[in-house]
């Protein structure tokens, strides 16, 4: 089964062609980050306009790079939530139009579930059946959550952030430190050679659980707004010297300490969530962080569990994960898919009517 995937939930315009749920024939991502950089964050209006302008070319390129023709596609898959409403709409409308023209099925995909599935992409990745049940960690710019997966299609949310997402915490800190946008990779680069024990930032603990998160285990929920505030106060008390050499050394150590606090918070929640499970699966843009990959690998060794980290090219937003998960049985398809529109607040495992 050959699926063309479309992803436009945030600020990446992406399309990919995937065979049988794992064999990635093409994976095209147009990042809009240069358009949003002057504003220090994603501007929804700019994002949807850029999707509109670039998506047709991105789709054509994905097909061209797969060396296939339109009539060889078996289905079109698209992210329908969660994400920015105006951005999601561009992908959904294009996918609906394409499926009507090609007379092939439309498959709607949940972005969070696709991030989980990203660890199963590529010829060397195991099949989900080999590692189910597992705990999934999704850490990105918009989401930070732990999910118990008993089959692809059966998800139980164990914990999530009570405020900022981990990627957001990286982005905000990079902004405060003047490191640029997107902040995660900038802060990771700045932390090279820095001392991670230079500042003791809080490890993502919160005082009380938001009533909105009723039913979740507090010990599996995250909080990252405190670490960002701690950084701001730290910098007020300890301004960075203006002398260039001294300042870059200090920025490296502050960045390394900040990164360590976020990574430790994520790893500790994973340790608690694993419980009796035998496998931890991780996806999302923050999984690109080498310190996080290193510490998760260490945790897996210590706990004697299997660790599946999404390959770097499938961590951040992409359409291969959308086309990949569409191969599985439990997605929304048929006439029902046509009746459904963008779901900006879609939850993992949610099945809208
Ligand atoms: O998965 P993604 O592309 O988009 C969302 O679904 O949100 O993740 C983007 C996030 C951004 O916040 C970015 O700063 C973060 O992933 N990120 C990183 C790294 N690379 C990207 N965070 C930490 N270290 C990195 N190397
Ligand atoms: Zn994402």
Notable characteristics:
353 residues; alpha/beta; five-stranded mixed sheet; 18% strand; binds 5'-O-[(R)-(carboxyoxy)(hydroxy)phosphoryl]adenosine; binds zinc ion
Describe this structure in words.
The chain is an alpha/beta fold. The chain has helices at residues 33-36, 44-66, 85-102, 111-117, 128-131, 166-176, 183-190, 225-237, 244-274, 290-303, 320-325, 334-339; strands at residues 2-7, 12-19, 23-31, 75-81, 106-110, 134-139, 144-151, 154-160, 279-283, 306-309. The strands form 2 sheets. It has a 5-stranded mixed sheet. The chain has a 5-stranded mixed sheet with strand order 8-7-6-9-10, with helices on both faces. It starts with a strand and ends in a 14-residue tail after the last helix. The relative contact order is 0.19.
Separation, N- and C-terminal Cα atoms: 26 Å
Number of helices: 12
Task: Name the helicity range.
Answer: 40-55%
Physical arrangement of strands within the biggest beta sheet: 3-2-1-4-5
Q: What is the average of the pLDDT values?
A: 94
Secondary-structure class: alpha/beta
Could you give a quick summary of the protein structure above?
This protein has 353 residues and is an alpha/beta fold. It has twelve helices and ten strands. The protein is globular, with a radius of gyration of 20 Å.
């Amino acid at each position: 089964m050959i699926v063309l995937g479309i992803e436009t939930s945030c600020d990446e315009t992406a399309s990919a062609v995937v065979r049988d749920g794992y064999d990635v024939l093409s994976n095209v991502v147009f990042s809009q980050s240069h358009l949003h950089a002057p504003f220090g964050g994603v501007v929804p209006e700019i994002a949807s306009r850029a999707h509109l302008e670039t998506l047709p070319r991105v789709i054509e390129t994905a097909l061209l790079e797969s060396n296939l023709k339109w009539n060889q596609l078996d289905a079109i898959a698209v992210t329908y939530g969660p994400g920015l409403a105006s951005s999601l709409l561009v992908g959904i409308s294009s996918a609906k139009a394409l499926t009507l023209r090609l007379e092939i099925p439309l498959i709607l995909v949940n972005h969070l579930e696709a991030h989980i599935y990203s660890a199963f992409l590529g010829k060397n990745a195991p099949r989900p059946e080999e590692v189910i049940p597992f705990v999934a960690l999704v850490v990105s710019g918009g989401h930070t959550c732990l999910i118990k997966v008993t089959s692809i299609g059966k998800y139980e949310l164990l914990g999530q952030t009570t405020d900022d997402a981990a990627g957001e915490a990286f982005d905000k800190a990079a902004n405060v430190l003047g490191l640029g946008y997107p902040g995660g990779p900038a802060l990771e680069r700045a932390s090279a050679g820095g001392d991670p024990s230079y500042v003791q930032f809080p490890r993502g603990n919160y005082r009380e659980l938001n009533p909105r998160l009723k039913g979740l285990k507090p010990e599996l929920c995250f909080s990252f707004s405190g670490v960002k505030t701690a950084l701001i106060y730290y910098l007020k008390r300890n301004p960075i010297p203006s002398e260039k050499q001294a300042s870059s050394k200090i920025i490296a150590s502050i960045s390394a300490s900040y990164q360590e606090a976020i990574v430790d918070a994520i790893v500790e929640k994973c340790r608690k969530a694993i419980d009796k499970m035998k496998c931890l699966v991780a996806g999302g843009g923050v999984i690109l962080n080498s310190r996080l990959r290193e510490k998760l690998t260490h945790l897996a060794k210590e706990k004697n569990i299997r660790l599946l980290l999404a390959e770097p090219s499938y961590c951040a937003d992409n359409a291969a994960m959308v086309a990949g998960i569409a191969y599985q049985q439990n997605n929304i398809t048929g006439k029902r898919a046509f009746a459904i529109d963008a779901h900006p607040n879609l939850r993992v495992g949610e099945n809208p009517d």
